[in-house]
Amino acid sequence: MNPVAVSFNLREATESDRPAINAIYATLGFMPWDPGQDQLLVAVAADRLVGCGRLHRYEGAVELGGMYVHPDFRGQAIARKILESLVDLLGAEVCYCIPFDHLVPFYEQFGFVACSEESLPAVIEEKVAFFRDVYLHPTILMVRH
Ligand SMILES: CC(C)(COP(=O)(O)OP(=O)(O)OC[C@H]1O[C@@H](n2cnc3c(N)ncnc32)[C@H](O)[C@@H]1OP(=O)(O)O)[C@@H](O)C(=O)NCCC(=O)NCCS
Question: Is residue 4 in some structural domain?
Fold first, then answer.
């Protein structure tokens, strides 16, 4: 945990953020940001992009993901603020999320619950299988109604 709380703002990502975001996502093995499809929020501290998260809008399904905070800025509730704002954007929309297992209690605080892999939208089913193949760390399928 960082001893000094940092001041940061959240805003919608713009085209000029795209290279920085996609460089981060490439290192994490996340899909690149597609502004036409994703609503992406960035956390900015002193003009520096320190965190992000997105709503990925597929045809027939929404997935919350792409959560990232720079290591120097972790433990200061930046991810919490990003998640809170993404959930506000969601309103009552059904939304899936496939976090690493250690983050399940965090997502539960925002109404996500672990769910069965039966009767999923095809794109989410594919995502679950993809994550299982790509990440060494276990992921858990969750949904928010
Ligand atoms: C996960 C990540 C976004 C958290 O960012 P952060 O700004 O440090 O998180 P916050 O300070 O807002 O903490 C939010 C909550 O998550 C929990 N959390 C954060 N990292 C955790 C970890 N490694 N294990 C368990 N819980 C964790 C915190 O305890 C906190 O919950 P609490 O307030 O109930 O204690 C950041 O560590 C990161 O970018 N990791 C690498 C990318 C990644 O794993 N993304 C998530 C993919 S599912």
Answer: no
Q: State yes or no: pLDDT of 5 exceeds 90.
A: no
Ligand 1: lining residues by beta carbon, under 6 Å:
28, 67-69, 74-80, 99-100, 102-103, 106
Q: How far is the CA of 43 from the centre of ligand 1 (A)?
A: 14
Asked if residue 84 has pLDDT above 90, the reply is: yes
Per the structure, the count of domains in the chain is: 1
The CATH number of the domain holding residue 48 is: 3.40.630.30
Domain that holds residue 54: 9-144
Cα 116 → chain centroid: 20
1 located within any domain: no
The answer to whether residue 128 sits within a structural domain is: yes
Nearest to 64 by CA among 49, 78, 84: 84
Instruction: List, for residues 106-120, the tens digit of each pLDDT value.
Output: 999 999 999 999 999
Sheet arrangement for strand 142-144: 9-12, 38-45, 48-58, 61-69, 95-97, 142-144, 113-114
Q: Output the pLDDT for position 1.
A: 52
**What pTM was computed for the model?**
0.94
